[in-house]
């Protein structure tokens, strides 16, 4: 089975990109599935189900959604195998811009939009830096010059990535991404696989539920700002 991880900032167009990419498969006999990872709520599973795509939803609640992803991806992979899925796509929002749910050897995609600002690519971190493919969306809203500058800044952060421009409304550019999905490596297990980058460091007292403010309550893995 082919597994593809798709990550990106909230509202960058991940769901639309995945949906249009699947539409680009046309009448090909490909069994598709999506696992949507989020924090509190999402209606994206309804979007996928209307397109006839098998969908499962994982809400992390108080946990980091990408830590939640790592804890559950093996279970999701085996579920997809049992369902005889050909391509399983996981969708996750890097809410802290530090998470990176990308796995070595597994095709990884980062979705980022032109409206997020020129300097955003260097702020996103490993989620973009270690992706195989960077999809840039909302190019129809900005000028050609702005698109080129933004793509240049993406390339500076991840010079090895393949950059694709996809319109989440019309689907323009999605066929090329679909071709890359079909060419992804086929695996029967995630045993012995590793993340491409470590998750954010933990664990501090606030991770465990502390609410009191003050240094007397700072315990665990903490970092203090230097203002001298």
UniProtKB/TrEMBL annotation:
The molecular function terms of the Gene Ontology recorded here are: GTPase activity; nickel cation binding; zinc ion binding
The organism's place on the tree of life at top rank: Bacteria
A Pfam match is cobW
SUPFAM superfamilies (alphabetical): P-loop containing nucleoside triphosphate hydrolases
Q: Where is the CobW/HypB/UreG nucleotide-binding domain?
A: 4-164
Q: Which GO biological process categories is it annotated with?
A: protein maturation
Protein name, per record: CobW/HypB/UreG nucleotide-binding domain-containing protein
Mind giving the lineage of the organism this protein is from?
A: Bacteria, Bacillati, Bacillota, Clostridia, Eubacteriales
């Amino acid at each position: 089975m082919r597994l593809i991880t798709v990550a990106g900032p909230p509202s960058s167009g991940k769901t639309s990109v995945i949906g249009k990419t699947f539409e680009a498969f046309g009448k090909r006999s490909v069994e598709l599935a999506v696992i949507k990872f989020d924090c509190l709520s999402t209606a994206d599973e309804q979007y996928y189900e209307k397109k006839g795509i098998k969908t499962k939803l994982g809400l992390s609640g108080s946990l980091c959604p990408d830590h939640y992803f790592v804890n559950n991806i093996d279970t999701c992979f085996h579920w997809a195998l049992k369902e005889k899925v050909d391509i399983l796509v996981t969708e996750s929002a890097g809410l802290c811009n530090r998470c990176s749910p990308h796995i070595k050897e597994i095709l990884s995609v980062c979705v980022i939009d032109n409206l997020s600002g020129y300097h955003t690519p260097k702020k996103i971190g490993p989620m973009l830096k270690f992706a195989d493919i960077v999809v840039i969306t909302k190019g129809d809203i900005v000028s050609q010059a702005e698109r080129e500058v933004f793509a240049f800044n993406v390339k500076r952060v991840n010079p090895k990535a393949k950059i694709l421009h996809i319109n989440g409304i019309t689907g323009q550019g999605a066929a090329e991404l679909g071709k890359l999905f079909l060419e992804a490596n086929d695996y029967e297990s995630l045993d012995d696989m590793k993340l491409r980058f470590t998750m954010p460091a933990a664990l501090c007292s606030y991770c465990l539920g502390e609410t009191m403010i003050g240094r007397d309550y700072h315990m665990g893995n903490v970092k203090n700002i230097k203002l001298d």
